[in-house]
Amino acid sequence: GRREEGTKEMEAARGEFEAAGDPASLARVLNDLAVDTIQVGDLERAEALLEGALAATRAASPTNTGATFLSNLANLALLRGRPEAAESRYRETVAIFRQLGRPGREAMAREGLGGALWEMGRAEEAMVELDQALELERSQPQDPGLASRLHTRAVIRLERGIATEAAGDADEIEQLTRTTGLAYGLALADDLRGRLALVRGDSAAGIAR
Question: In terms of Cα–Cα distance, which of 146, 94, 143 is closest to 117?
């Protein structure tokens, strides 16, 4: 099929970039192969490919941080049920994006870090990271990531039994949707309304959502 053909082309490109001594291009194709490998569920191989992408991009230039690949490695570690490894990767990514002055990307990394901390039962630390992520997002005019960070915080708030504050996050997402016209914001708000209904015992409303 098309995916198999695409994989073969990427593997061929990988060989060409390795032979040509082009680590920057090699890093990109290794990352693409990793994404492709994740889609078929081979997470162990995907991690090895991302590690290769990180090494290659840093070999290409001493100024390359490899932050995107670090972020992907952190996300993958969390997906594999390894929050301790994810925490380390996320913290490194946060530091890089903060140094580079990329608040939107830093916010995304902090959201992931919050998720990893939550998975390890470190709820207070998780909330600190999510609050910082939201503060960073709000510094960016109409940043599309704000709705996602609000949703993540609301879900954790619900799991902690803080329904009133979670409802406030849902309200803010709905307001953002009206202001920015982001279609997926409404879906996020609806998801939260459904979760809130279930928490409050209105199972019919929860299912309807």
Answer: 94
* Contact between 14 and 33 (Cβ < 8 Å): yes
Q: Rounded to whole angstroms, how far apart are CA atoms 189 and 191? A: 5
Q: How far apart are CA 190 and CA 27, in angstroms?
A: 39
Condensed to tens digits (0 to 9), the pLDDT of residues 34-72 reads 999 999 999 999 999 999 999 999 999 989 999 999 999
Q: Give φ, ψ of 63 to 5 degrees.
A: -90, -10
**Helix/strand/coil (H/E/C) assignment for every residue in 136-192:** HHHCCCCCCHHHHHHHHHHHHHHHCCCHHHHHHHHHHHHHHHHHHCCHHHHHHHHHH
Better pLDDT: 89 or 199: 89
Which residue, among 88, 67, 93, 64, has the nearest Cα to 78 in the 3D structure? 88
